[in-house]
């Protein structure tokens, strides 16, 4: 296993009815800005729970952060915070609200020009307003990591910085009961692919990371379809919620090579064509598995055996089977598994490849050897 430093400082407050815990988690004298999205929290009772918990705090709100949060919207919050002097941000919503809030938190004290530079130059910020969050959509892991993805027009870019890692995250699975089946599926697939990006590379004898990753994959394969079939089942939601957090909280990525090609291609598909994040991943991952089957052979065989119990046949046959059952799983989750499924054709490939080049995605993959032209070949396999 490779050397690593691991530190995750987010306090997790997990379980039904835990939103009230924010009262103690936020400093009593803080001036709090609650950020949220398009209004789902006002329909499912989450906003009311947050408001009740903040009864003794000074607070105001900023709504309207859209899915795939947009720079222009976020900069309005930045202007307001600079004017009114908020000193704690409470993000209430899914990954987009959390990511948008991370950008706001980093942009407020930013003094080196336009805060878009943070994304355009992949800068690491040293300062940010403190953030807490109430997560309502298990998917991204944003609730306890230092990453955020923000869009400006068709440019969908990310940054990673320790100061934006949330101080605490409330994970109440009951908040997820109001999700549409589409968002439930997107979330399960996102968590699945986060795990795969850190697992399906090449072996480095990282036994715990591998087995932990396999446990997360198995849980998602087991519980994902149940969340669609029995949407009222809170125990299923609880398992999915904790799995999604663990899939991208830095733990399984310790000391192992990582890929992230699927995500980089996926971000371009969302940037240009507005596809939901999770749906870009179910389209691209199987094609990456096929394109990189030689480089990933060891881990593909391990995945086949340990996650799907595939032990019969030649190595080639077992890899084919592993890719096929992965696609089956995505189909069970009712997400697209090809560009065609998502209504896209070959013209989409040119746009995505061009943007990958413009965004300097020249050395992707666990070996740093995947170029935008490789992505063209991958996307052709995804047609
Ligand atoms: O805006 P509201 O009204 O809240 O509605 C949202 C939104 O329309 C709705 N929703 C959320 N919780 C709900 C709910 N509806 C009913 N009941 C609830 N409990 O769901 C819709 C989608 O929300 P969004 O936050 O966009 O989804 P998700 O959590 O999947 O986040 C996706 C974003 O996160 C980024 C993606 O690229 C994308 O921009 N990612 C962030 C990562 C990170 N920070 O580490 C890693 C990921 O790979 C990903 O890239
Ligand atoms: Zn993702």
TrEMBL record:
Entries under Pfam families matching the protein? ADH_Fe_C (PF25137), Fe-ADH (PF00465)
Keywords, alphabetical: Oxidoreductase
Provide the Fe-containing alcohol dehydrogenase-like C-terminal domain boundaries. 185-382
What sequence ranges are listed for the domain Alcohol dehydrogenase iron-type/glycerol dehydrogenase GldA?
A: 10-173
Query: Which InterPro entries does this one have?
Result: ADH_Fe/GldA, ADH_Fe_C, ADH_Fe_CS, BDH-like
Which superkingdom heads the taxonomic lineage of this protein's source? Bacteria
Q: Does the keyword Ligase apply?
A: no
Positions the record marks as coiled coil are: none
One example of the protein's molecular function in GO is:
metal ion binding
- What CDD domains does the entry give? BDH
* A GO cellular component annotation in the UniProt record: cytosol
**What is the similarity comment for this entry?**
Belongs to the iron-containing alcohol dehydrogenase family.
Record protein name field = Aldehyde reductase
Look up and give the organism this protein is from: Desulfovibrio subterraneus
């Amino acid at each position: 296993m490779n050397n690593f430093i691991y530190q995750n400082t987010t306090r997790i407050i997990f379980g039904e009815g835990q939103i009230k815990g924010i009262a103690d988690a936020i400093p009593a004298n803080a001036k709090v800005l609650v950020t949220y999205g398009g209004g789902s929290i006002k329909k499912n009772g989450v906003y009311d729970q947050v408001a009740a918990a903040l009864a003794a705090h000074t607070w105001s709100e900023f709504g309207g952060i859209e899915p795939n949060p947009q720079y222009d919207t976020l900069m309005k919050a930045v202007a307001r915070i600079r004017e009114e002097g908020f000193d704690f941000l409470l993000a209430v919503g899914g990954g987009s609200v959390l990511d948008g809030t991370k950008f706001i938190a980093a942009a407020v004290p930013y003094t080196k020009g336009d805060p878009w530079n943070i994304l355009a130059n992949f800068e690491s910020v040293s300062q940010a307003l403190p953030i807490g969050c109430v997560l309502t959509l298990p998917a991204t892991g944003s609730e306890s990591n230092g990453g955020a993805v923000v869009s400006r027009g068709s440019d969908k870019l990310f940054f990673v910085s320790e100061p934006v890692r949330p101080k605490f995250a409330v994970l109440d699975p009951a908040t997820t009961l109001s999700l549409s089946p589409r968002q439930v599926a997107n979330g399960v697939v996102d968590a699945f692919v986060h795990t795969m990006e850190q697992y399906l590379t090449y072996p480095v004898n990282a036994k715990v990371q591998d087995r932990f990753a396999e446990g997360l994959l198995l849980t998602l394969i087991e519980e994902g379809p149940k969340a669609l079939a029995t949407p009222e089942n809170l125990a299923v939601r609880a398992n999915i919620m904790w799995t999604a957090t663990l899939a991208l909280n830095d733990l399984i990525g310790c000391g192992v090579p990582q890929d992230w090609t699927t995500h980089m291609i996926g971000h371009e598909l969302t940037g240009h064509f507005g596809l939901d994040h999770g749906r870009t991943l179910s389209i691209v991952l199987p094609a990456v598995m096929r394109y990189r089957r030689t480089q990933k052979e060891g881990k593909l065989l391990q995945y086949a055996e340990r996650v799907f119990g595939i032990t019969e046949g030649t190595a080639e046959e077992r890899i084919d089977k592993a890719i096929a059952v992965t696609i089956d799983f995505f189909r069970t989750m009712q997400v697209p598994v090809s560009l065609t499924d998502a209504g896209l054709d070959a013209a989409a490939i040119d746009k995505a490849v061009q943007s990958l080049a413009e965004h300097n995605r020249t050395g992707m993959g666990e070996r740093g050897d995947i170029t935008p032209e490789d992505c063209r070949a991958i996307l052709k396999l995804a047609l």
